[in-house]
Amino acid sequence: MVAGFSIFILLLFITQYIAYQKYLIHENEQRKETLIQVNVIKEKLQALVMYSYSATKSLQYIVERNGIPPDFEKIATELLNRNKYFDVVELVDGDGFITHVYPLKNNDVLGLNILTSSESSSGALATLKRKDFFIAGPVNLKQGGIGMISRQPIFIENKFSGFTAVVTKLSTFFNDLSIDSTNDNGFIYQLSRVNRETGKEDYFFKRDISAFKEFAVPIEMLYGEWKLYVIPTKHEFNTGIRFALVGFLIAIVGGWLVWFFAGQSVRLNKLINLKLIKQESELELIHKSSRKQIKKSESNLNRAQQIAKLGNWELDLTLEKGNLTWSKEMYRIFEKDPEKFEVTNDTFYEAIHPDDRARVLDIFTNGVKNNKGYRITYRLKLDNNGIKYVEEQCEFIYNENQNPKKAFGTIQDVTDRKKIEEVLKNSELLYRNLASNAPVAIFNLNKDGECTYVNEEWMSYSGLTFNEAMGSGWQVALHPDDKERILGELLEAILKNIEFKSELRFQDKKGKITYLAVKITKLLDANNRVYGHIGIASDITERFDIEQELLIYKNNLEKLVDIRTEELNESKEALLNLLEDINSQSIELEKEKVKAQSADLMKSAFLATMSHELRTPMNSIIGFTSILLKEFAGPLNEEQAKQIGMVKTSGQHLLGLINDVLDISKIEAGELKVSLYPFNYIDSLQKTVEFLLPQALKKGLSIESEISIIDITLISDERRIEQVLLNLLSNAIKFSNIGAIRIKVAVKDHFVVTQIIDQGIGINKTDLNKLFMPFIQLEGGLSRSHEGTGLGLAISKNLIDKLGGRIEVESIEGKGSTFTFYLPIE
């Protein structure tokens, strides 16, 4: 009886203890399920903040450096595809009006002023006040639903110019978690934003949760304090109660069985032990699952920080020396070993460059004192004496007594950006110095014809200052009699996307008139689209004065001839006097002719000198842009590579023009030298063909050779002959759109005869006599469809003449041309 009663008491105690543990396990499982749900939403919300900051920061960077991107929809599409939380991307101008929205469908907000809107003004003004990233919400969206709006202010030259923004619907956010926030049968969800000044909560969902304040989970972030509510609605029956009743019955039955069967106690104890082991295993499984989920979230955050080169730190300000903690990316940025480096305030400041250390410490101290976040760029001095540029942002958290509690900050490695900015700055200074010191007027127009740059020479011609010439102000310099004609020609050139070439007059404020020859060439980007124009104007006042003088002489001579002719009928004496006067005038004309020839030689000498002076810096510009494009100085983004590529292309085009001008100047000045030595003519020809073959293939043309002799040795100037071949073959490719370009080579009467035959546009017979004249192009003015200086054929003819040969041309308009040149073998 005693044994049975003892067993009953023992079994009752054990079963009730197990029931109590099972009751606790059941309650813990429900709490863990709720906690897991809270942690998942909390992590996703923090990820949304990071992604919103990254997206708006990227768009802000583009707008601040390049203005509103013409491919805004493409950039917005990439942001939406890369970030599943975003529903809309927006741009806002400096007056608060929404100017760009993507996608437009169901987003009728274009033209809305967010600074005056009752729904948007508080968040927009808060962002403007912070001068930094800010998330506003809850907001009743125009397209329907409740959402959050993340904004980044835009400052161009320290002037507020608008916002970049992304919009996230709360429904999109919860759908990503596979949660129906309105119809979830397991939980009630609520999200609120706490106003730090009033302590009031702004709720995202219209539901009363005043009875569930204990379920609030605070979420302290850099951009405000938030609260998340996940309230379970189902209260499952706790199996521990059932187990307690069963345990009571087991105790009764066990005590009775022991009373009858004392030997059954061993098996009962074994059963109890197995049950305890199973319960312990279930608890361990739940613990491992929670740890795995937390570790995965930490890994995603570290990967995102590594991609953005963005680390974060947190400093506990309640301690005397402060407890500083770093994220993993901070160690990579500072190039420190996490196993060996001890993170403290002292070691942190020791890593800052000595010249920047006092400034950073002063800004941090003032921030703590005034509860004012900051953003600052400074340098790090690494252990290997290397230098890094970083951008730090910091916010402070204060307790209810307004005492500093925590400092939270981010540090981003911006070394590459700094290097690129420095290279671009030096390139721009080089261009400005070259343009400013050029002996001709240089100016830039945008694609709408508005002036964006003039050099010193232009300002001396016009009498205008730099600021007066900007925009449409340059038109003031035009002579009133020329203004309407020139603006009409320029507008037509811009609309038809062709080159502008004309002669005009500038009249300054004092009435001084300068005659100018002006040429304006379009500037193309990497996609062959016009983004502006560059113009060069040279002073031709002296030439104009000479022409006017000659015209006066001509008119005077004609009048004199008329008078003398009348007098001839009256007397022989008059005829003799007339002949004497004509002879005197002829002498004067001969003097003027000599004067004009002298001016022409001075022009050629000037062009030769100027071309030499321009070619040296142009080679430097092309060389440095090639180095930048090869990314020896650091990686380039797509926009930077495109713009540097355009600088290189324009430089190569200008260098080719300078070389042609230099050659024709030497020819006209009689200073062109040739070097004669033996070389294989066929090898030179094949080398030139191989160089131009990609250009021909790009237009769908083929180059065919018909050479009767494989080995031809010439005693001549190989470089100049290759220049002639390059000019003639380039013209054949330029003016051909179909068919083949044939090259025939033969030896006849001690001359090498080369024929270049194309099936291009051909030349009118009346124009053949102008073909080899310098600066003459058969397509002129606004009707030109092919680029060029008009110097290639003139240079080629002079070179062939200099080498003892001759050149001929046969052409049928619309069917093609044949250029034949003869070179002596010796």
What does this entry look like structurally?
- The chain is of the alpha+beta class.
- It folds into five domains: 1-181 and 237-304, PAS domain (Beta-Lactamase, 2-Layer Sandwich); 309-413, 2-Layer Sandwich (Beta-Lactamase), CATH 3.30.450; 426-525, Beta-Lactamase; 545-668; 675-824, 2-Layer Sandwich (Heat Shock Protein 90).
- Helix content is 49%, strand content 23%.
- The protein contains 19 helices and 26 strands.
- The strands form six sheets. Strands 2-1-5-4-3 form a five-stranded antiparallel sheet, with helices on both faces.
- Strand 25 (806-812) and strand 26 (816-824) form a beta hairpin.
- The protein is elongated and about 175 Å long.
- The N and C termini lie far apart (139 Å).
- The model is unreliable at 780-785 (pLDDT under 50).
Q: What's the arrangement of strands in the largest beta sheet?
A: 2-1-5-4-3
β-strand number: 26
Give the strand content: 15-25%
Please work out how many helical segments DSSP would assign: 19
Average residue pLDDT: 78
The number of distinct structural domains comes to 5
The largest sheet, given as strand count, sense and whether it forms a barrel, is: 5 strands, antiparallel
Please name the CATH architecture of the largest domain.
Answer: 2-Layer Sandwich
Q: Outline, from the CA principal axes?
A: elongated
Radius of gyration (CA) equals 43 Å
Helical amount? 40-55%
CATH superfamily of the largest domain: PAS domain
The separation of the N and C termini measures: 139 Å
Helix/strand/pairing category: alpha+beta
As for the CATH topology of the largest domain, it is Beta-Lactamase
Specify the CATH class of the largest domain.
Alpha Beta
In the predicted model, the low-confidence regions spanning at least 5 consecutive residues are: 780-785
